[in-house]
Amino acid sequence: MAIRTMLVPLAGTQTDLIALTAALSVAEPFDAHVDAVFVDPRQDQPLILAKAAPPGLGDEMSVMLDTAANTSAPADLVARAARYADLLVVGQTKGKQALRVNTVRDIALLTAGRPILLVSTTSSLRIGRRVMIGWNGRTEAVRAIPAALPFLKSADTVSVVTAKTARTGANEGESLIDYLAWHGIKADLAILEPKGAPIGEALLDKANEISADLLVMGGHGHSRFREFLLGGVTKYVFSHAALPVLVAH
Asked: Would you kindly state where each structural domain of the chain is located, as residue ranges?
């Protein structure tokens, strides 16, 4: 899948500009277009952020202030706009607004059918040169690979990392190595033994160890209801990642 269009949901938080800047950094090598949609009508922050963004922002990105936001749930608005984007780019939000904003993000991931690139305040603008794939062979992880192919094909190094658990066999990583080779992507394999530590923590420690600037993984949700949140490994990584994370569900 080529990355030609990206969407940045804005919520009037301090991470909006971080997400916009990251989106433009990713867009440049792919010659992609970036749109933004404001999901909180109580503030006019997107206009301020657009003026404060890097030079040339106005030529490369349009800000859509959708009047439907007054009557639509924010997650519905984001999911609707995301249907016409190849990738959503969101900032890692903490503090008083975190629960509301992150709930919108998680529901959008689970309902929009589009991958999300999560960036934090400590994320480098150099995204996708050293890519690490957190792999367990499950459906969500499988869906993340096509979304990540544009990054994987242009990366300097690609590492496939699996965690040794009762549900994940060592051959899972080897099979992905073979699959990537058919796409002209050379990757190495590492197998983690968490030894009691959370899987998410082990993945992030490994990403830091190899100086990865992008983590690719599947997003797992655990509920029958629409308002459910992502849980387990995904929730831990979303809360603690210092590097950009590309997630698909």
From this structure: 5-119, 130-246
130-246 classified as CATH 3.30.70.100? no
Residue type for 197, please?
Answer: A
Cα–Cα dist 1/145, whole Å: 10
Which has the higher per-residue pLDDT, 90 or 47? 90
CB atoms within 10 A of CB 193: 10
What average pLDDT is seen over the chain?
77
Residues in the chain, overall count: 249
- Residue 24, CA distances (Å) to 11, 148, 175, 185, 192 in order: 18, 17, 34, 25, 34
* Rounded CA separation 218/192 (Å): 17
What is the spatial order of strands in the sheet that 130-134 belongs to?
61-64, 33-38, 5-10, 87-91, 116-119, 245-248, 214-218, 130-134, 157-163, 188-192
CB-CB contact of 7 with 20 (8 Å): no
Domain 5-119 CATH class label: alpha beta
- Taking the C-alpha atoms of residue 145 and residue 148, their distance in angstroms, rounded to an integer, is 5
Whether this prediction's pTM lies above 0.85 is answered by no
Looking at residue 38, its pLDDT comes to 76
Q: What is the pLDDT of residue 81?
A: 80
Q: Give the gyration radius of the chain's Cα atoms.
A: 17
Beta bridge partners of 218: 248
